[in-house]
Amino acid sequence: MLRIALLLVLALLNGCALIYKMDMRQGNLVDQKMVDQLKPGMTMRQVELVMGTPQVASPFNQDRWEYVTSNSHRRKQPEIKTLTLHFESGTLSKIEGDWLPKSGDELLEESRDLQRHSPDDNRKVKNG
């Protein structure tokens, strides 16, 4: 009888280790494809359409947006990634963090093309 009780207790305790724990992703859902779409010169609205609303937007510095993602895997330390976007005069000027666009030269050339061929949302047309 004691053996059966002992085996039952051991089986129950061992079962606790077998409980399934889901992977959890919290914060902004950011991936490399989204970051690759970011180009210097994009307006805040264009960036928001690509990336979504930033998780952290400081009321004191509205030209800096923070995107934070946390991935928790079973029995491992959470992986935390950040992306910081800096704006100057309402346009994207700098990207920092754990995700970066793949090619800097390509990004620079595309931003020049963007500025040459598309009107800025904030630019006022002069009548004249």
Strand elements, count: 5
Following the backbone from N to C, one meets helices and strands in this order, namely HEHHEEEEH
* Large-scale geometry: elongated
Q: Which architecture per CATH?
A: 2-Layer Sandwich
State the low-pLDDT regions, or none. Answer: none
Proportion of residues in β-strands: 25-35%
Helix content: 25-40%
Features:
alpha+beta, elongated, Beta-lactamase Inhibitory Protein, Chain:B, domain 1, 128 residues, 5 strands
Question: What do you see in this structure?
Answer:
The chain is of the alpha+beta class. It has a single domain (22-116), classed as Beta-lactamase Inhibitory Protein, Chain:B, domain 1, CATH 3.30.1450. Helices cover 34% and strands 25% of the residues. Strands 1, 2, 3, 4 and 5 form a five-stranded antiparallel β-sheet that branches. Strand 2 (56-57) and strand 3 (64-72) form a beta hairpin. It starts with a helix and ends in an 11-residue tail after the last helix.
List the helices and strands and how they pair.
Blueprint lengths: L1 H16 L6 E4 L4 H5 L7 H8 L4 E2 L6 E9 L6 E10 L2 E7 L6 H14 L11
Antiparallel strand pairs: 1-3, 2-3, 3-4, 4-5
